[in-house]
Amino acid sequence: MADTTDYVHSGGDAPDARVSSSKANTGKCSQSGQSMEVDAKPGEIHSFQYNMDFPEKSLCYIINNKNFHPSTGMGLRSGTDVDAANLRKCFLTLGFEVKVFNDQACKGIVDILKNVSQQDHSKRSCFVCILLSHGEDGTIFGTDDFIPLKNLTTLFRGDKCRTLVGKPKLFFIQACRGTELDGGIEADSGGDSSDDQQRIPVEADFLYAYSTVPGYYSWRNTMNGSWFIQSLCEMLKQYGDTLEIMNLLTRVNRKVAYEFESSSNIPNFDGKKQIPCIVSMLTKELYFSPKNHSL
């Protein structure tokens, strides 16, 4: 293992992890940690907002898995078609080109997302992917098996999808992340033009909006759709063209947390709660409507 002590004492930056000798000797990060130069021009100089005013419609891809092979042990996801239809309507209203893919096996999901990641997005402002399926923490189910989420999101990293560098890449994931149940508790109180030659991390400008926190179930009503997608669509309809995305998703969190509670004939599954989880690597504020919030 390389000794980085002298470098740290001299005022340099050191990782909070072991450094292999190969990395230390070259003085460069590995492929997974490298930076990319921005070749997109997503905004004005020193802008704190993503520019959403591009000539072509951005893409919104929805993977909607309802039926699963018996070998997976996963049941029918009744209500998911309601989610998919509501999402399609919301993102069409926001000006996206929306494509819905139903009942995709693992290979199908990878092929669909790999294909779109290789398209030319230079005239588009962003990319949205919505995954509606069963899942476990870190994985999503195709109709035949599960696949690590990382295998899908990596396709859009800065070193893989150059025409989305400096632009927001949003993933909304409606799936379980484990088998824990939240019983709840009573509350005690009421890319810039100036970015041409800048280097940015390959993992920058992603946002992951999960329906639940790691380790927990995610709830879905068989008639009305999932709690998370119901809430997301309602907030998008009301505030999609006015609120910044993090503010909007905070309202989604509150709606799911305060307005939903499970009703089940199975005692252990009755009266349970849920809280979505937002993971953001966005580097600017994001408004879906460029006309309302120009700087």
UniProtKB/TrEMBL annotation:
<dbReference type="GO" id="GO:0030216">
    <property type="term" value="P:keratinocyte differentiation"/>
</dbReference>
<dbReference type="GO" id="GO:0030218">
    <property type="term" value="P:erythrocyte differentiation"/>
</dbReference>
<dbReference type="InterPro" id="IPR016129">
    <property type="entry name" value="Caspase_his_AS"/>
</dbReference>
<dbReference type="GO" id="GO:0006508">
    <property type="term" value="P:proteolysis"/>
</dbReference>
<dbReference type="GO" id="GO:0097194">
    <property type="term" value="P:execution phase of apoptosis"/>
</dbReference>
<dbReference type="GO" id="GO:0030182">
    <property type="term" value="P:neuron differentiation"/>
</dbReference>
<dbReference type="InterPro" id="IPR011600">
    <property type="entry name" value="Pept_C14_caspase"/>
</dbReference>
<keyword id="KW-0865">Zymogen</keyword>
<feature type="compositionally biased region" description="Polar residues">
    <location>
        <begin position="19"/>
        <end position="35"/>
    </location>
</feature>
<feature type="region of interest" description="Disordered">
    <location>
        <begin position="1"/>
        <end position="37"/>
    </location>
</feature>
<comment type="similarity">
    <text>Belongs to the peptidase C14A family.</text>
</comment>
<keyword id="KW-0788">Thiol protease</keyword>
<keyword id="KW-0053">Apoptosis</keyword>
<feature type="domain" description="Caspase family p20">
    <location>
        <begin position="56"/>
        <end position="180"/>
    </location>
</feature>
<dbReference type="GO" id="GO:0043525">
    <property type="term" value="P:positive regulation of neuron apoptotic process"/>
</dbReference>
<feature type="domain" description="Caspase family p10">
    <location>
        <begin position="196"/>
        <end position="290"/>
    </location>
</feature>
<keyword id="KW-0007">Acetylation</keyword>
<keyword id="KW-0963">Cytoplasm</keyword>
<dbReference type="GO" id="GO:0004197">
    <property type="term" value="F:cysteine-type endopeptidase activity"/>
</dbReference>
<dbReference type="InterPro" id="IPR001309">
    <property type="entry name" value="Pept_C14_p20"/>
</dbReference>
<keyword id="KW-0645">Protease</keyword>
<dbReference type="GO" id="GO:0051604">
    <property type="term" value="P:protein maturation"/>
</dbReference>
<keyword id="KW-0832">Ubl conjugation</keyword>
<dbReference type="InterPro" id="IPR002398">
    <property type="entry name" value="Pept_C14"/>
</dbReference>
<dbReference type="Pfam" id="PF00656">
    <property type="entry name" value="Peptidase_C14"/>
</dbReference>
<dbReference type="GO" id="GO:0031264">
    <property type="term" value="C:death-inducing signaling complex"/>
</dbReference>
<dbReference type="InterPro" id="IPR029030">
    <property type="entry name" value="Caspase-like_dom_sf"/>
</dbReference>
<dbReference type="InterPro" id="IPR015917">
    <property type="entry name" value="Pept_C14A"/>
</dbReference>
<protein>
    <recommendedName>
        <fullName>Caspase-3</fullName>
        <ecNumber>3.4.22.56</ecNumber>
    </recommendedName>
</protein>
<dbReference type="InterPro" id="IPR002138">
    <property type="entry name" value="Pept_C14_p10"/>
</dbReference>
<dbReference type="GO" id="GO:0005737">
    <property type="term" value="C:cytoplasm"/>
</dbReference>
<dbReference type="InterPro" id="IPR033139">
    <property type="entry name" value="Caspase_cys_AS"/>
</dbReference>
<keyword id="KW-0378">Hydrolase</keyword>
<keyword id="KW-0597">Phosphoprotein</keyword>
